[in-house]
Each structure stands twice: as C-alpha cells, then as structure tokens.
Design a protein that fits this description.
A three-stranded antiparallel β-sheet has the order 1-2-3, with no helix packed on it. It has one domain. The N and C termini lie close together (9 Å). With 55 residues, it is mainly β. Helix content is 0%, strand content 44%.
Length: 55
Amino acid sequence: MVNVGDALASTGWTISAIDEHGVQVEKSVVDVTGQARHWVRTLPVARSSRHGEIR
C-alpha cells in the first residue's frame, strides 16, 4: 500500500497523487550541468474482478 508523499524505494520517484484513475509519480534531479529536470508519470490502476477493488 502506498500514500501520497511516499518514496518508491531506490528509484527517486515519489507518489504525488492517487485517485480512481491511477497513481501519479514524480521525480526531480539536477544533472551535472546544474540543469533541473522534472518528470511526472501516471500509472494506471488495476481493478480486482471482485467488488471492483483497486489493486
């Protein structure tokens, strides 16, 4: 189970939002030139065949 603000172990990605459509993760890094990079991805949720639960 994850919550908003949780870091995904050793990946640098952090949970930034959770809703019925998916889990949004974000990652920010500063490269060797000093330029900041920021990525945002939404991972779709899988629904259980029983009771429509989100997995």
